[in-house]
Design goal:
The complex is a heterodimer of chains A (about 500) and B (about 120). Chain A is an all-alpha fold and about 500 residues long. In chain A, about 70% of the residues lie in helices and about 0% in strands. Chain B starts with a helix and ends in an 18-residue tail after the last helix. The chains are: A mainly alpha (about 500), B mainly alpha (about 120).
Chain lengths: ~500, ~120
């Protein structure tokens, strides 16, 4: 039993506690500690990726209680892939936060580490109730982060976000309770065995519990019609937090993917997923076209990327899942880059902030403009950046499905709408300016912040250059997911969960 | 007893959902509390209702009650308690910053005394 599996949980938890104890320390030291912790998580995630690359599934039984009686952590290719994505994103978001956002409140770094603790835990856990607990951990941290810095709009958005997520948590508990009452287990692998063998008279209740769970995950993933909380929350929080939240909707998508492939064998949820995902994509793109603020526009683009991702998962084939998993880190990084860039643009426009109205000429507008152009290309999915490859893979996976006309139509028109929306914003921000030269007192954007945006874009370039190996890896993830017997055997042992 | 418990859970849920949909923050907080009570009772009942049985298998007792839902409920209660405290603080902050206790932070509808 390798302790490597639990290390991505312990590191942010201990770092968070340490940062809380050291809150009187000089801010520079705390920043260094937090950055070191995130770098450590990146290293651990990469080690874990190497350990599971050849198809091994590592199981960590907490307290050495054998599954299904104890709680277990399970690291497979999918978990490792998401851990790496989270750590990379967190590195850039934290570095940006350390440029000054973290001064606005006392516990930014503590909450940031606890958020990572919750995220890593949600990806690694092999137990349904533990998934609930880690969801709560990441949500509680996200409430604090969302409110970081304060402000009227932020408070109002946080109130909506907290209340809807608490209602979601209540539903999650009801679903988990139903599963336990019906099947007598909460271990995901054991649930897979029990669901497959459930008696016909209990099947409707099991289906009800499964759909309830799907509703909860759809709420976290912001699937239409449960998506109304997202634009307000993401558009009104501080930039590094919004960048980190780009992964939060993906946790819901991950949970849908995990539960539907492992526990339900792809049968329960899949009929609902594709239409709702396409609708989410359409709503996101229409919202982006109609936004009057840049950050609201990016938030709607995040919504659309969730729609694209779940469209890929909703295809239900190995090719679709692989394409979606390639698209997931790309869309996360691109959205984070746009959130950070929008903050830099808004910071220079005074009272106009990020409203898409003619304003003063921006300082360093050449750099900002080029970065905005690149972000827009990445987000809309144009060549040569990784968004194009992700969308191409999704469309190719959709070609042999009966739903192909719908998927192709919505994804392609959605891409066009994204392009139009971002072109409109870009021309309003950079061309339709009032004065010909920047005002003398306009602060120029710091090079470090722009470097971080460029770094996030560089991740997209790297994903393009190594698209072949990465796509091979996501293919391997999809194959592993569609053969859940390996997961079940790894957790429950070779007898495959036969109850005494 | 099952029927009584089911009725209670249903009543708490109904009241919780009704209050959750109100427009002021105080009823919303109360609604969330009632909802979490209902969920806790529901989780508890998922281990089947037993009276006077130990939560452990012994030779002397006639049977046992499932200890796992009790552990789950304990966790859910702790989380629910912390969340209620948080949401109360948030509601107070919203009341202070937005100037009223409407969940959307809207201003009071202006009283039209000219028509009447």
């Amino acid at each position: 039993m390798s302790h490597l599996v639990i290390a991505p949980l312990l590191l942010p938890l201990l770092a968070g506690i340490l940062l809380l104890l050291l809150r009187g320390m000089d801010l520079r030291w705390r920043r260094g500690l937090a950055l070191a912790a995130v770098l450590g998580q990146l290293a651990l995630a990469l080690l874990l990726t190497r350990a599971v690359a050849d198809g091994d599934i590592l199981v960590y039984a907490l307290g050495n209680w054998p599954a299904p009686f104890g709680i277990c952590l399970v690291a497979d290719r999918l978990a490792a892939w998401l851990l790496v994505t989270t750590a990379l994103l967190a590195l850039f978001a934290l570095a940006y936060g350390s440029l000054g956002t973290d001064r606005a409140g006392r516990h930014f770094h503590v909450l940031f580490q606890l958020e990572l603790f919750g995220l890593n835990g949600a990806f690694l856990t092999g137990d349904l109730f533990n998934l609930f607990v880690f969801f709560e951990v990441l949500l509680i941290a996200s409430y604090g982060l969302l409110l970081h810095g304060g402000g009227r709009l932020r408070t109002r958005a946080a109130l909506h976000y907290v209340v809807i997520n608490l209602a979601g948590s209540a539903l999650f508990l009801i679903a988990a309770g139903l599963f336990y009452g019906l099947l007598g287990t909460l271990n995901l692998a054991d649930l897979a065995v029990q669901v497959a063998a459930v008696s016909p008279d209990r099947l409707p209740l099991v289906r009800a519990a499964g759909l309830l769970l799907f509703g909860v995950f759809a709420l976290k993933a912001a699937l239409v019609p449960l998506s109304l909380w997202l634009p307000g929350a993401y558009a009104n929080t501080s930039a590094p937090v919004a960048a980190l939240f780009a992964i939060m909707t993906k946790v819901g998508a991950y949970a849908i993917l995990r539960l539907s492939t492992l526990v339900f064998g792809g049968a329960l949820i899949i009929d609902w997923l594709l239409p709702l995902a396409l609708l989410t994509l359409a709503v996101g793109m229409i919202g982006a076209t109609g936004s009057d603020r840049l950050r609201a526009q990016v938030a709607y683009l995040v919504l659309a990327s969730v729609g694209t991702l779940l469209t890929a998962f909703g295809l239900g084939s190995a090719a679709g899942i692989a394409a979606g998993l390639y698209y997931l880190p790309h869309s996360t990084f691109a959205a984070a880059a746009l959130f950070l860039l929008a903050d830099q643009i808004a910071g220079q426009r005074g009272d106009l902030a990020d409203r898409l109205e003619p304003g003063p000429v921006l300082g360093r507008h050449w750099v900002l403009g080029v970065l905005f152009f690149l972000c827009a290309i990445a987000m809309a999915g144009l060549p040569p950046l990784s968004g194009f490859i992700g969308k191409f893979l999704i469309l190719r996976a959709a070609l042999d499905r009966p739903s192909a006309p719908w998927v192709l139509g919505v994804v392609l028109v959605g891409g066009l709408l994204a392009l139009m929306a971002l072109a409109r914003s870009g021309s309003r921000l950079f061309y339709k300016t009032i004065d010909s030269a920047p005002a003398a007192d306009t602060p120029t954007p710091p090079g470090a912040a722009l470097g971080l945006v460029a770094g996030l874009l560089a991740l997209g370039v790297a994903m393009t250059l190594w698209a072949g190996p990465l796509n091979d890896y996501t293919d391997a993830i999809a194959r592993q997911l569609l053969h859940p017997a390996g997961y079940v055997q790894a957790v429950l042992g070779p007898r495959g969960g036969a109850r005494p | 007893m099952e029927a009584l418990l089911a009725l209670m859970i249903g009543l708490l849920t109904a009241a919780g959902v009704y209050l959750l949909l109100r427009a002021r923050t105080f009823p919303v907080v109360l609604g969330l509390s009632l909802l979490s009570y209902a969920v806790n009772l529901f989780l508890f009942a998922m281990g089947r209702l037993q009276i006077g049985r130990p939560p452990i298998v012994t030779a002397t007792a006639a049977g046992y009650t499932d200890p796992l839902p009790q552990a789950l409920v304990l966790t859910a209660i702790v989380i629910g308690f912390a969340m209620t405290a948080f949401v109360i603080m948030l509601a107070l902050k919203a009341r202070a910053e937005l100037g009223n206790d409407h969940v959307d932070g809207l201003h009071e509808p202006e009283v039209r005394d000219t028509d009447s």
